[in-house]
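From the thread on structure requests for the teaching lab: each student submitted one protein with a one-line request. Submission from student K.M.:

"Model Deoxyguanosine kinase from Zhongshania aliphaticivorans, tokens only."
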Amino acid sequence: MIKRSLLNEPIINAEKPPCFIAIEGPIGVGKSTLTRRLATSLGYQMLLEQAEDNPFLERFYANQRHAALSAQLFFLFQRAQQLSDLRQSDMFSQTHIADFLFQKDPLFAQITLEPNELELYHKVYQQVEVDIPTPDLVIYLQAPVKVLKERIQHRGVQFEQSIHGDYLERVNAAYSEFFLNYNDSPLLIINASEIDFANNDRQYEQLLQYLLEIRSGRHYFNPTFF
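Reply posted by the TA:
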């Protein structure tokens, strides 16, 4: 059992966890929140998806067709650069946690781009994916559209308020299909609908203990108390 006093500071003398963890899931599911808390507990460096730096994202949410390719390529290059910088700084001697999985990038391209744009995207993706590291553990957070909409509204980012439910439905379906066939890394699937990793220490403690023991395969996490 992990001592509660260690939940918000680096763990000492714990079993060695995976060196590179990636957290994934649709917008509003809680990726960045969980990434920050795990980074604190494990003493890891963070890689955060810097959506606020994407100059095309607001236009994309307002009118997907007018900015889909630009927004997608910006994220592709941004993520590739972040991971490339890590590799050049000897990533394998360090520990990191990211709130994105690079290998899922085509997921969004497939649901937002026209066929000719998608063809161009795939050509670019094949060039930049070279030497992108594979995580030692992937955590996939799930939640239904109703929950995602509530959380998006609650966090109050103005241009995100225009995100439509049908878009979130397509995103959720694409994530489900992607991770149904994903086997590049050990995978932990979490239904985050009724889990509060930011404020519920008991739920978070259970997750932390659980992931420290994962070495291979596919796993599902449900806290035993709330």
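TA comment: DSSP finds eight helices and six strands in the chain. The helical segments are 31-42, 57-62, 64-88, 105-112, 115-128, 145-155, 165-180, 201-211.
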